[in-house]
Amino acid sequence: QVQLVESGGGLVQPGGSLRLSCLASGFTFSSSAMSWVRQAPGKGLEWVSSISSPGMRTYYADSVKGRFTVSRDNAKNTLYLQMNSLKPEDTAVYYCQLGDRRGQGTQVTVSS
Description:
It is a single chain. The relative contact order is 0.32. Strand 9 (about 90-100) and strand 10 form a beta hairpin. The strands form 2 sheets. Strands 2, 4, 5, 6, 9, 10 and 11 form a 7-stranded mixed beta sheet that branches. A 4-stranded antiparallel beta sheet has the order 1-3-8-7, with no helix packed on it. By secondary structure, it is mainly β. It is built from no helices and 11 strands.
């Protein structure tokens, strides 16, 4: 069965960086497009970024373009999200997503 396990969240000051990871299992990760989505307190799910495979094409929401970088290591069945220049409005639970399936999420809090 599909399992997606996110990690790497935490509390960071504005302008700081975090790297999220998502360990995937139960499907052919290397041939699956993957996404990151987030949910801020009291708001709905927001798409953040996607990466194709093969081809490694990447896509970003305007709100994170130039600050976030999505990548993957197919040998490790792992998806990453490097987040730089973090802002308070980036505070959310971040999920990796395959189709309509998501993991349990990892909390990112940006605050001074």
